[in-house]
Amino acid sequence: MGTGHGTRVDYVNYDVIVVGAGFAGLSAAVDLADRGVRVLVLEANRHLGGRATAYRSSVSGGSIDNGQHVLFGCYHETFRFLRRLGVDRDVELQQTLTVDSIDTDGTLTTFECPHLPPPFNLVAGVFEWDRLPLSERVAMLRLIPPLFRALREPTCELDWVSADETVSVWLERHGQGPRIRQLLWEPLAVAALNQQPDRAAAKSFVRVLSALCGP
Asked: Where is coiled-coil annotated (predicted)?
């Protein structure tokens, strides 16, 4: 951890200086330290984790997440890092994908996938979601072919998805309506990719979505 203002640090005693104690900085520092490298981590804030943090609300007293961060079970390198730190047992994962959201009329709605083989778990969850019109539930079937293909080719580069295509364009091309995009696909894209759907790469979204609904 970095030191505060006014504290002198003898940088000669370190081989590498990592600026920033977010996930990337801490992961790099741990890997270097495991190789015997003398590492100094500098961080301006008083907490570790960078933007992946939370703060206490002065109004409700509850904990508020800083941003749309989400931890999916398919984040293999993240969990490898947490295991290395010995804190992976503190992470509680959902057995099935469950997403709570507030609709535009203020109604709390829950999307939940049943225990079925992928990607039928995702399809069944959409068909059981009563906040969507029937036409948009049926349109979900158009995502089965690309998800099946991505599941069969977990290590491929997804060359059949254009590198220039955004999540928004990809969803529109596959007939996904405005309601399911607003309530499910777009929040998932922001949470997983940290970018708005009109900027995030469709290739990354397809990979995350297939891994998310996978075994």
From this structure: none
pTM (two decimals) = 0.73
User: Residue 181 and residue 38: Cα distance in Å, rounded?
Assistant: 47
Looking at 43-123, which runs of residues are DSSP E strands? 54-56, 63-65, 98-102, 108-112
Task: Note every long-range contact of 205-208, with CB atoms under 8 Å and residues 24 or more positions apart, other chains counting.
Answer: 205/167, 205/170, 206/146, 206/147, 206/150, 206/158, 206/161, 206/170, 207/150, 207/158, 208/72, 208/74
The residue whose two tokens read 């007293």 is 61
Question: Would you say how long the chain is, in residues?
Answer: 215
The per-residue pLDDT for range 46-99, each reduced to its tens digit, is 889 898 888 888 888 888 888 666 787 778 889 999 999 999 998 888 888 888
Q: Is 144:119 a contact under the CB 8 Å cutoff?
A: yes
Give the sign of the dihedral formed by CA 131, CA 137, CA 139, CA 144. Answer: positive
C-alpha 195/C-alpha 182 separation (Å) is 15
Residue recorded with tokens 């690309």: 146
Separation between Cα atoms, residue 3 and residue 192, nearest integer Å: 32
